[in-house]
Amino acid sequence: MTGPEPWWTDAVVYQVYPRSFADGNGDGVGDLAGIRQHLDHIADLGVDVVWLSPVYRSPQADNGYDISDYEDIDPLFGTIDEFDALLVEVHRRGMKLVMDLVVNHSSDQHPWFQAAKLSRACPKHDWYIWRAPVDGHEPNEWRSAFGGPAWTWDPGTGQYYLHMFTPQQPDLNWDNPDMRAAVHAMMNGWLDRGVDGFRMDVINHIAKDPEALSDGSAAYVMQPRVHDHLQEMHERVFAGRDAMLTVGEMPGVTVQDAALFTDPDRHELDMVFQFEHVGLDHGPTTKFDNRPFDLPVLKASLARWQTALAETGWNSLYLANHDQPRPVSRFGAAAVAATAGAAPPGSGADPFAFRYESATLLATVLHLHRGTPYVYQGDEIGMVNAGFRTIDEYRDIESLNWYRGAVGRGMPVAEALDALAFRSRDNARTPIPWDDSEPAGGFSSTTPWIGMGQGWPAVTVAADRAAGDRSVFAHTRRLIDLRHTSRTVRLGAFELLEADHPSLWAFTRSLPDESEPPLAVVANLSSSALELPEDVGSHLGDLVLGNLGVPETGALRPWEARVHAFG
Q: Is 89 a catalytic residue?
């Protein structure tokens, strides 16, 4: 980019999962009041944008991603007035607020779907996707992302309706112009209220070909009409508005697709969430079939996206969110286990081995890539996976459905629990432990909706922020400051070094106009000291930032990450 660059090229986003952030009214569930009480914690990091996971009215079949009223706040989280107050406070601290937009599907309790079920003659019937039985069965072999058929029979209409997730989340029909107009009006309403943009949930699923009979995703992921829908959305909602942010969550997106979606001349999206790198440790049949950590494969994946979007498009940089395991457990502890020869990740990795080091190393590597970094709540203090050991501790519908199916097919209970302990979405959903107080670490004055997780009471916000040179929070803040001050970090070209090295993650960032010196990142993802290869180490200049302070020798200490001048 030659400038002026879009504002989000030097921005960092912080994701809040409201039900697990802070409970302001003492009912055990996080809410808007709790977010307001701890907003300074987010602002102190120096982030630019707060992304708020869904707080709309919802029956909570999928923790708010099943919306029954797009224009109001669920009483579980507060009121619309409390939302407005939060928005004011976010803006007062110089940050923007982005909301989750879930319009691939609604809740089955939404008035639109309730009307659609009344009669095939109802205009809103066509706002959803219905099909007649085929030979007395589902119209095709599509499967829900959460297990089971993607079609549910509705006796009242004598048809099946499509739901790519739970039966309580019927898919909207984006071929219907009246439905699209209603979605656009809703979006404009939130933007008029002061919201600064949207993170769009599975937005690449909105164009579908339900006539396809195969069970593959080609008929409902990246159908060509999705580009038409997004361009129309830009025209009807975002055109003429300043400083908006549009992010598309897109399972299955390719680098070629992403270049189209994020090409500014096409007026579709600013950036996408791709899933390639967080699917590398998934097994061939299910994500709960965990594969060992493989650093060269992970490096190659992220580097490919850096290269492919170097000229056109933009990357979202993330290792975690509300659907992913904690990075310290997934990439840190798993790498420790892999280098020690432990088999497969699940129960064999200690998340507290090198917890500070791995949390800060992974943050360093992430923030020094080209793109917009996302910090998921709790990762700024190095939270670990939940550590649940009984099925009764889990709340996530995907995890519960998979467990029932796996055990029902004969998988030993202990093996199924090991898989959940590593992979379940609940690993990211345990409450933020603000301190070590009872009963819930300052998150709530009562028993929380889900257990506190194995890190508490040792790992807390208070303890980490008081930890001096071993504070994950402080190191993350330094990384954000570096992005804000360095054009090389924001826009520099990326080049991967030592691609096949099993424990060294090294790359350079450089500007073609040489207006700033190049930078090199070197990180040791192992429990042993690492001598740098000569062609890397001999070019390292002054230390810019490191997670273990001033280097003791030329070798990298276990889980040490450094940013150097390079030349």
A: no
